[in-house]
Design goal:
With about 1450 residues, this protein is mainly beta. About 5% of the residues lie in helices and about 50% in strands. Strands 51, 52, 54, 57, 59 and 60 form a 6-stranded mixed β-sheet that branches. Strands 62, 63, 65, 67, 69 and 70 form a 6-stranded mixed β-sheet that branches. The radius of gyration is 62 Å and the shape is flat. The N terminus is likely disordered.
C-alpha cells in the first residue's frame, strides 16, 4: 500500500527506558553542556550500548546546527552487550542556550537524541500539588514534600500561602543539589472545601528583583466534621454491686461514622468526683469508619459506696457524648448461725463448751475477728481468721466460771468491709454455798425492752415495789410504765445507718451516762516501766448509775490456770452503792525486760439482790454487765528505739461513703504484724498534739477524752474521724481489724491525715515506724435541682388540651434522697407531675413529666413545691429533721383555637360507581397552639317526618361501610400550620350523596402518654369542618349506528339485538355485582380489601350478535358499529374472547379430553372466523368509537362464539358484563338454506281489547343458491286456540316457494286477551327435510311501546358513494285512511356521476302498494343533492309496516356493481277500535 505525500511519520524522541524497550539501545537521556564560555571548545562523550541479544547496525546523522559537531558518520556494527563511544563537540559563539538533536538509525528504527547547552539558572523542583483530602475541623493535618535545588546556582526562596494553610520553613537558602523538607499544615475552621495557591519566589538575594523566579504549588483540603458514636448507643454503664477489692469491667466501643479521623479525650464532666471509675484509654484517635474498644473499670474502695459519675467523650472536630457510670461497693456477707449461746447452769471452776458456725455467703474471702481475750471467761478457740468463699468455719466457745453469779457478755465480731456481728453468751455459775437464779434467754430480751421503756435505772427491789404500788406493769414479762408520760427516752449518742448499727454499739461500748453501769476509764497505759522498780498503780473507775446496790467481780487472765497475772486489780470483789463510783487499783508486774504487755480485763457487775435465786423475782430479773477495760505497758527503756516493726496495712487511704450531716458511717481496716516480735500501735491525728504516753509516761483514756478507747479527737473541736481501738498490741503474725468512724458536722469534703506510731516511738528513725493514713469523707445535705434553673416553659396550649413536657430532676448531693410533689389545691385541676414521689440515688437524675391543661385563655405562672429529704432506710435511727423545699416554676399560656377547611364545600361532581376517587382537603390552624382532634362523618338523609328537611346520621370512617372515608394520618395540627387530609369516596349506586364532616377537639393525642392524675375534660362539642357532595353514576355506552354493506340498519338492529343491548347497558345495576357483599377491589388500590366476602354470583345476561348466513367462500360479513359514551364519566370497555379469559396451564397439568363445544370454540378461534377491531378502549364523556366486526365464511356450518363485553366499573373487578354470542352460518354450495336469524321471534306488543289488531310479518329469507319450498305447521296454533277459547295467533300463509336470495314476508295476527306473554312453538319445514322450530312470542300490553332506531347515519363507510338524510322513519300509530308525507334528501358524496333508483318490496304489502317515492329514479352529479318525497297511504286493513326500501346507486362513470342504501320504515296504523 503506497503512502500518501505528507504522511511521513515524525521521528520520536524517547526517554532512556523507552529506548531500551523499543530500540535495544542504552544511552544518556541527552547530551548536556554546562559551565561553558563563548569562543571555547567543549567535548562530551556519548556512550551507546546494545542491550539486546541481537547484533545491530547503528548509524547517526550529524546535528543540523554548526555549533555542534561530530565525526563523519559511519555504520557501526554492535554485538550484544557492546558499547560505542561517540565524541560530541560544542563551539559556542554567544552566551545563549543552544539545542539540537542527533538522529540515530538502528535495526529497530530511528530515534532522536537531544543535545542541549544551557546557561546557569535558578531551578527549584517540588511537586505541582499537595492534596490533604479530608481533614477534621480544628485539627491540624501535616504534609511534607521535598524541595530540591536542581539548578546550578544557590537559590534563596520565600513562600506565600493563605490561611488555613501554613508552610514551614517559609524562607531559606538551597545550594545546588541540596534537598530540604518543607511542611504544610492544614487546620480548617469550618466544613468547607479549601484551595490555595502557594507561591514560591526564589533567586539570588543580592539581585532579588532581577533574578527572582516565581513558581506555584496548588494545595487542596476539605474541612469536615467528625462524628463519633457509641456502638449500640449505650450511654449508661451500670456495674451493679461490686465487691470491695475487686474490679468490674465493661466494654465501650467508639465508632467513627465520619470520613475523617476523630481525635477524642475523655474527661470527667464534673468536679469533686470520686476516682473509682477508670478508662483504659483517656485520649486517642479513631480512624474513619473504624471502631475502638475501651475498657471502663470500676474499683470500689469501701462497702456502702454508691458511685455515680459523668464523663464527656469530646472530639475536637465533632460532637461530645456524655456517659454515666453507676456502681455500688459491697462487702462480704458473713453471718453467725446464732446470736446467743446459753451455757445454762455450770458448776464453779469447770469448763463447758458450745459449738457455733460462722458462714461466708459470698464469692470472696472474708476476714473476721472476735474481740475476746484467749484467757477470758468466755473464750473462742479461733478468735480471728479468714473464711473462704461460700464456706464456713466451726468455732468452739468455752465457758469457765469461778464465782457463783450470773454471767453475760456480748462479744463483737468484726468483719472486714462489713458491719460488725455480735454473739450474746449467758450462763449461770453455782457452788455448794450459793446458787443464783438460772439465767434464761427470754430474761435478756425482757431486760432490753425494759431499758427501752426507761426502767434501766431501777434495781430489782425497786421494780418489785413499783409493781406493788401500780407505777409499772408487767406485760408478758416486759415491765413498762403505766403512765407513759414518765417514760424518759434515753439519749441517743450516735445515728448510724443500718449497715453500721453493730459497729456503732461496739464504738460506744461501756460508755454513756444513761447506762446502768459506766466504765469511766476504758484504757490504761503504764508506759515504759521496769520489772526491777516499783511501778505506780493506776486507777479504773466504775460508776453505778442506778438506784440499786451492785456488786462487781474482776476476772484476771491467768486466774483459771493459777498463774501470776501481769496485770491485777484490787479489790477483785466489792460492792457499789447506788449512784456512786468505785475506784480500783490496777497493778503492773512485768516478768521480762524489753517486752510489750497488753490485756483486756473483765469485770462482771450485777445487782446484789441477784446473788441468790430466793431473792429473785422472775419479772424483775436483771442480767449482769461485763466491763472490759484495756491495760497496757512495756519494759523498754524510755526514749530508746524498740524492735523494728513489720506492719502491713489493708489500705493507706480510707474513703468513707458519703454521709448525711450528723449521721455516722463506719468502715474497717486490717492491720497485720508480719514480723516475729510483738508490735504496739497507736493512732494520732496529724492536727492534734499527741499526748506524752508515747514517751513513757502513763496515760488514761476516759469517756471525756474519747469513745471506748477511740481517738480523743472524736469530741475535740467536732473532729469527724475517730478510730477504735486507738491503741493496741499485735502479737507476732497476728492480724486484727480497726474500726473507723466518720461523722460530719457540716456539708463539705473532709480530708484528714492520721498517723500510726509503732512501739511507742515518736522519732522517725525508721521509715516503717510511721504510716500516714489519709481519710476522706463527704458530709452532705440533700440537694435537689431541676434543669433550666428550676423553670419549665410550655408553649401556648389549647384550652382543655393536655400538654406534657419532660424534665429532669438531679440529686446533686452524694447521698440518696426522697422527694414528693405537693401540688397546691388551687393548681391541682390543671397541672400535675409524674411520678409524684420517688427516690434518687446519689448524683443521679430522674426523668419527670409535667402535665399542663389550661382551663382559661390567659397566661399562667405556677409555682409547684417539691419537698425532699435524706432517704432513710427502714427502722433507721435518724434526727428529727424537717424536709427541704424547692420550687418548680411552670410558665404557660392557655389559648383558644379552631380548625378551618378549604374548601368549605367539596363537590366531587359525578364519579363512576365502585371507583375510588381521592381529593385533598386543606386543614388550617391559624392559632398559636397545637390542636388535637378527631373527625366524625355524618350522612345527610331525608327526614321522613319533615318534608324538605335532612337529618344527620353518624357513619363509620370506612370506605367499605360508608362509601367515604377521611384518611387522618395524624391527630395533631401544629400551631400556625396546615395539613392535607386525603378524602376517599367509592359510591356504589347511582344516587346523589351529601356528607358533613365535624371535628372534635380532644385533650391529648394518640402519641402522648396520658398517664396523668389530672381529670381531663371529655369534650364532645362538635365543630363544623366541611360538606361533601358526590353523585355516583354507572358506566354506560350506547350503540348509535350499525352498518353492513347490503343489509339495512333495521335488520342489523334486529339481528344484533341492539335494542336489548342498549337497554341492558343503560340499567343502573352492575350486571355481575355481588349480591351479598362489597365488590372486591382491584389490587392496585391501596385501601384494605381483606375480609370482604364475595357473596352470591349472578350470571351476566346474554345476547346474540347474528351475522346472518352466506354460502361458503363468500366475502366476509363485515359489520360496522358505533358506540358512544352518553354519561359524564370516562368508561373503559373491552371484549374478551374465550382464550383471553383462559388460565395458562402448567406443562405438568393434564387438561383432560376436549368436549365438542371446546373443539368447536377452538376451531373458530384458531381459524379467526370472528374478529373484532379494536377489542378495548376508553371513552370519555361524549366520545364515540368505531368498532369493526367480521365473520369469515371459511368452514360450512353454524358457528357460535361466546364473547364477553365488559364495561370496567371503577376500581373493582365487578362491572357491567354481557355475554354476546357471535353467531354466523356458512352454507355449503349444494345445500338449501332457509335463514331464520333466531329461534325466537317477538311480535310487536299489541294492546289488549284491540278489535282490529294489526297484521304483522315474519321474514323468511333464502340465503342459499337453490330454490326452496317451505311449510309452516300451524297445528300448535289450534292447540293454543282450544286452551284459550280464542284465536290468539293467526298465520295467513303456511307454505310457499322462495327463490335464491329472495325474501318472503309471512303475515301474522296477534290478538291478546290480557296483559301477559303468549308464546307458541311453530315448526317450519323445507323440502330438503330440514325442520326448524321458531317460538313466536307476543305481549299483551295496556299501551304499545315505541322502538328507538337511530334515524340518521353516523358511521361513515369507506366505499359509500351516496347518503340519505334519514335511514329510519317511524311514523308511529296512525289511523286508517290518513296519508303521511316525509321529505328525504339523497346526496352524492363521490367524485363521479351517479344514478339512483328506488326499489319497493312488493312482497311486504301484496298487490296494492301503499308507499311511493317521487322521483323514483334520477341522476346525481358529484356533490349534488336531490329531494325525494315519500307518501304513505295505508290500506284498508290494520297492519304493522316494518319494511326496508332499497335505493340502488350506480356509478355511471365506472359502471361497477351497484351500491345499495336502505331506508327503514315502521308504521303501526291505528284502527280507531279503542
Amino acid at each position: 500500500m503506497k503512502k500518501r505525500r505528507g504522511s511521513v511519520r515524525p521521528i520520536p524522541t524517547p526517554n532512556r527506558e523507552e529506548r531500551k524497550i523499543h530500540y535495544g539501545i542504552d544511552c544518556a537521556d541527552l547530551v548536556h553542556f554546562a559551565h561553558w564560555e563563548p569562543g571555547g571548545e567543549h567535548v562530551k562523550s556519548l556512550i551507546v550500548k546494545n542491550v539486546v541479544m541481537k547484533t545491530q547496525k547503528i548509524k547517526y546523522k550529524l546535528p543540523k546546527t554548526r555549533f555542534f559537531s561530530m565525526e563523519f558518520p559511519e555504520t557501526v556494527t554492535l554485538s550484544a552487550g557492546m558499547s560505542w563511544t561517540i565524541p560530541v563537540t560544542f563551539r559556542p559563539v554567544a552566551k545563549e542556550t543552544y539545542t539540537d538533536v542527533i538522529e540515530f538509525t538502528t535495526s529497530f528504527g530511528k530515534f532522536n537524541l537531544p543535545i542541549k547547552a544551557t546557561l546557569p539558572e535558578h531551578v527549584l523542583e517540588y511537586p505541582a500539588a499537595v492534596d490533604f483530602s479530608l481533614c477534621p475541623l480544628r485539627e491540624t493535618a501535616r504534609r511534607i514534600f521535598q524541595l530540591k535545588n536542581v539548578g546550578e546556582l544557590a537559590s534563596s526562596f520565600e513562600w506565600e500561602i493563605s490561611r488555613p494553610f501554613v508552610i514551614t520553613p517559609r524562607t531559606g537558602v538551597l545550594t545546588p543539589g541540596q534537598t530540604m523538607q518543607v511542611a504544610i499544615e492544614f487546620q480548617p475552621e469550618d466544613a468547607s472545601v479549601f484551595t490555595a495557591n502557594a507561591v514560591c519566589h526564589f533567586g539570588d538575594r543580592t539581585q532579588w528583583e532581577r533574578s527572582k523566579v516565581t513558581q506555584g504549588l496548588t494545595v487542596y483540603g476539605i474541612g469536615k466534621y467528625s462524628h463519633m458514636a457509641i456502638e449500640g448507643n449505650n450511654k449508661e454503664f451500670n456495674f451493679g454491686d461490686v465487691y470491695v477489692g475487686r474490679k468490674a469491667e465493661k466494654k465501650l466501643v467508639l465508632v467513627n461514622n465520619s470520613s475523617v479521623s476523630c481525635n477524642f479525650k475523655i474527661n470527667q464532666a464534673e468536679k469533686n468526683t470520686d476516682p473509682y471509675f477508670e478508662f483504659s484509654i483517656l485520649a486517642g484517635t479513631v480512624a474513619p469508619g473504624k471502631k475502638l474498644e475501651l475498657t471502663v473499670t470500676y474499683i470500689p474502695v469501701a462497702s456502702g459506696i454508691s458511685s455515680t459519675d459523668y464523663f464527656d467523650i469530646t472530639s475536637v472536630s465533632g460532637n461530645t457524648i456524655r456517659i454515666v457510670c453507676y456502681g455500688n461497693g459491697v462487702g462480704p456477707s458473713v453471718t453467725l448461725n446464732t446470736k446467743l449461746v446459753n451455757f445454762n447452769d455450770v458448776p464453779a471452776s469447770t469448763t463447758v463448751m458450745r459449738p457455733i458456725y460462722i458462714q461466708n455467703n459470698t464469692t470472696i474471702d472474708a476476714f473476721y475477728q472476735f474481740l475476746a481475750e484467749p484467757n477470758s471467761i468466755f473464750r473462742i478457740d479461733k478468735p480471728w481468721g479468714t473464711i473462704g468463699p461460700n464456706s464456713s468455719v466451726a468455732l468452739t466457745i468455752k465457758f469457765s466460771p469461778v464465782e457463783p453469779i450470773n454471767y453475760y457478755r456480748r462479744v463483737y465480731c468484726l468483719v472486714d468491709n462489713q458491719d460488725a456481728l455480735f454473739i450474746d453468751m449467758i450462763g449461770t455459775c453455782y457452788n455448794e454455798k450459793r446458787r443464783p437464779a438460772t439465767f434464761h434467754p427470754r430474761q435478756l430480751e425482757n431486760y432490753k425492752h425494759r431499758v427501752t421503756n426507761g426502767l434501766w435505772s431501777f434495781g430489782p427491789e425497786h421494780l418489785e415495789e413499783m409493781l406493788k404500788n401500780g407505777t409499772i406493769q408487767c406485760d408478758d414479762g416486759v415491765l413498762r410504765f403505766i403512765n407513759k408520760e414518765k417514760h424518759k427516752i434515753p439519749q441517743i449518742l450516735d445515728f448510724p445507718y443500718n449497715d453500721g448499727l453493730v459497729s456503732s454499739e461496739y464504738f460506744y461500748e461501756n460508755t454513756g451516762s444513761e447506762k446502768a453501769v459506766s466504765l469511766l476509764d476504758t484504757y490504761i497505759d503504764f508506759g515504759s516501766c521496769s520489772k526491777y522498780r516499783i511501778i505506780e498503780t493506776q486507777v479504773i473507775r466504775i460508776s453505778n448509775n442506778t438506784k440499786g446496790k451492785m456488786s462487781c467481780v474482776w476476772y484476771l487472765p491467768g486466774d483459771l490456770n493459777n498463774e501470776d497475772p501481769v496485770f491485777s486489780v484490787t479489790p477483785t470483789i466489792t460492792d457499789i452503792s447506788p449512784r456512786s463510783t468505785v475506784e480500783f487499783r490496777v497493778h503492773f508486774r512485768p516478768k521480762t525486760d524489753n517486752s510489750f504487755y497488753g490485756q483486756q480485763l473483765e469485770c462482771f457487775v450485777y445487782f446484789k439482790s441477784m446473788r441468790n435465786f430466793r431473792l429473785v423475782n422472775e419479772d424483775t430479773f436483771t442480767p449482769p454487765w461485763c466491763l472490759t477495760p484495756t491495760v497496757a505497758g512495756n519494759t523498754f527503756p524510755a526514749g530508746e528505739d524498740t524492735f523494728i516493726p513489720k506492719i502491713e496495712f489493708g489500705a493507706t487511704r480510707l474513703d468513707f461513703p458519703a454521709c448525711h450531716v450528723d449521721k455516722t458511717v463506719y468502715r474497717t481496716m486490717k492491720i497485720t504484724n508480719a514480723g516475729d516480735t510483738p508490735v504496739k500501735f497507736a493512732f494520732a491525728d496529724t492536727q492534734f498534739a499527741y499526748n506524752v504516753s508515747l514517751s513513757g509516761s502513763p496515760v488514761h483514756t476516759n469517756f471525756n477524752a474519747g469513745i471506748g478507747g477511740s481517738t480523743p479527737l472524736s469530741f475535740h473541736g467536732g473532729a469527724p474521724f475517730s478510730v477504735k481501738p486507738r491503741i493496741g498490741l499485735l502479737h507476732k503474725n497476728e492480724s486484727r481489724l480497726v474500726v473507723f468512724r466518720f461523722s460530719p458536722s457540716e456539708q463539705k469534703t473532709y480530708e484528714q491525715g492520721l498517723k500510726c506510731y509503732f512501739n511507742s516511738s515518736l522519732s522517725n528513725n525508721y521509715l516503717q515506724t510511721k504510716q500516714d493514713l489519709q481519710m476522706r469523707g463527704i458530709g452532705a445535705f440533700p440537694q435537689l435541682v431541676f434543669e433550666n434553673q428550676n423553670t419549665l416553659f410550655f408553649k401556648p396550649t389549647c384550652v382543655g388540651t393536655l400538654a406534657q413536657k419532660p424534665f429532669y430532676a438531679r440529686n446533686t448531693s452524694r447521698i440518696p434522697i426522697t422527694f414528693e410533689w405537693k401540688i397546691p389545691t388551687l393548681f391541682s385541676g390543671f397541672v400535675s407531675i409524674e411520678p409524684v414521689r420517688g427516690i434518687l440515688k446519689p448524683n443521679s437524675s430522674i426523668a419527670l413529666s409535667c402535665s399542663f391543661c389550661p382551663a382559661l385563655d390567659k397566661n399562667w405562672l405556677l409555682r409547684i413545691p417539691c419537698y425532699y429529704s435524706h432517704a432513710h432506710e427502714e427502722n433507721e435511727l435518724s434526727h428529727e429533721s424537717r424536709n427541704k423545699r424547692t420550687t418548680l416554676t411552670v410558665i404557660g399560656t392557655g389559648a383558644d383555637a379552631c380548625i378551618t377547611a378549604e374548601p368549605q364545600i367539596l363537590d366531587l361532581d359525578a364519579i363512576l360507581v365502585n371507583t375510588v376517587v381521592e381529593r385533598d382537603i386543606l386543614l388550617l390552624n391559624m392559632s398559636d397552639c397545637d390542636i388535637f382532634y378527631n373527625l366524625e362523618i355524618y350522612k345527610l338523609v331525608q327526614d321522613p317526618d319533615e318534608e324538605g328537611c335532612h337529618k344527620e346520621i353518624l357513619i363509620t370512617n370506612n370506605i367499605r361501610e360508608s362509601e367515604i372515608e377521611v384518611i387522618q394520618s395524624m391527630d395533631l395540627l401544629p400551631a400556625r400550620s396546615n395539613h392535607v387530609l386525603k378524602l376517599r369516596s367509592c359510591i356504589r349506586d347511582q344516587v346523589r350523596h351529601e356528607f358533613r364532616i365535624y371535628y372534635i377537639m380532644k385533650p391529648y393525642g394518640k402519641n402522648i402518654a396520658a398517664k396523668t392524675s389530672l381529670h381531663l375534660p371529655q369534650n364532645k362539642n362538635m365543630f363544623h369542618l366541611c360538606d361533601i357532595k358526590v353523585l355516583g353514576v354507572h358506566p354506560v355506552v350506547r350503540v348509535t349506528d350499525i352498518r353492513s354493506e347490503g343489509v339495512s340498519k333495521s335488520l342489523l338492529w334486529k339481528y344484533f339485538s341492539l335494542e336489548n343491548f342498549n337497554e341492558v347497558l343503560k340499567s343502573t345495576e352492575d350486571l355481575t355485582e355481588n349480591t351479598l357483599g362489597v365488590p372486591e377491589l382491584e389490587e392496585d388500590f391501596d385501601f384494605p380489601t381483606e375480609g370482604v366476602t364475595g357473596g352470591e354470583y349472578k350470571e351476566p345476561p346474554s345476547l346474540d350478535f347474528n351475522f346472518g348466513s352466506a354460502p361458503i367462500g363468500s366475502p366476509a360479513s363485515v359489520v360496522h358499529m358505533s358506540i358512544i359514551n352518553p354519561g359524564v364519566v370516562p368508561v373503559e370497555w373491552v371484549y374478551y374472547f374465550p382464550n383471553d379469559l383462559e388460565v395458562e396451564i402448567e406443562n405438568w397439568a393434564d387438561p383432560g379430553d376436549y368436549t365438542e363445544e371446546q373443539l368447536h370454540t377452538n376451531l373458530i378461534l384458531d381459524n379467526g372466523l370472528f374478529s373484532i377491531t379494536p377489542k378495548t378502549g376508553v371513552l370519555h364523556p361524549g366520545e364515540s368509537t368505531h368498532i369493526v366486526m367480521a365473520y369469515n365464511h371459511k368452514f360450512p356450518g353454524l358457528h357460535k362464539l361466546p364473547v364477553v363485553f365488559k364495561l370496567k366499573n371503577g376500581s373493582t373487578r365487578a362491572g357491567k358484563e354481557l355475554v354476546l354470542y357471535y353467531v354466523g352460518y356458512t352454507i355449503p354450495l349444494e345445500q338449501k338454506c332457509l335463514y331464520l336469524p333466531s329461534s325466537h321471534h317477538p311480535f310487536n306488543p299489541v294492546s289488549i281489547g284491540t278489535s282490529n289488531p294489526p297484521i304483522q310479518t315474519y321474514r323468511l329469507e333464502n340465503t342459499g343458491l337453490l330454490t326452496l319450498n317451505y311449510t309452516i305447521d300451524i297445528s300448535p296454533l289450534n292447540k293454543l286456540k282450544s286452551e284459550n277459547d280464542f284465536e290468539v295467533f293467526v298465520c295467513k300463509k303456511s307454505s310457499g316457494t322462495i327463490a335464491p336470495g329472495d325474501v318472503e314476508y309471512i303475515e301474522w295476527i296477534f290478538r291478546p286477551l290480557e296483559v301477559k306473554e303468549y308464546s307458541v312453538d311453530i315448526p317450519i319445514m323445507t323440502d330438503d327435510g330440514q325442520t326448524s322450530i321458531v317460538t313466536f312470542i307476543g305481549h299483551g300490553l295496556e299501551e304499545a311501546k315505541d322502538h328507538a332506531i337511530p334515524p340518521v347515519q353516523i358511521l361513515p363507510m369507506v366505499n359509500q358513494i351516496a347518503v340519505l338524510s334519514k335511514e329510519h322513519i317511524n311514523f308511529g300509530s296512525i289511523p286508517l285512511g290518513v296519508q303521511l308525507r316525509e321529505l328525504l334528501v339523497i346526496r352524492n358524496t363521490s367524485d363521479s356521476k351517479l344514478s339512483f333508483k328506488w326499489i319497493f318490496p312488493a312482497s311486504a304489502w301484496g298487490s296494492s302498494p301503499c308507499i311511493c317515492i317521487n322521483p323514483t329514479e334520477g341522476f346525481l352529479y358529484p356533490g349534488e343533492s336531490r329531494f325525494c318525497k315519500l307518501i304513505f297511504s295505508p290500506a284498508e286493513v290494520t297492519r304493522i309496516y316494518n319494511l326496508d326500501v332499497q335505493c340502488q346507486i350506480l356509478n355511471e362513470t365506472q359502471k361497477v356493481i351497484p351500491y345499495y342504501i336502505f331506508i327503514s320504515i315502521l308504521i303501526v296504523p291505528y284502527s280507531g277500535g279503542i
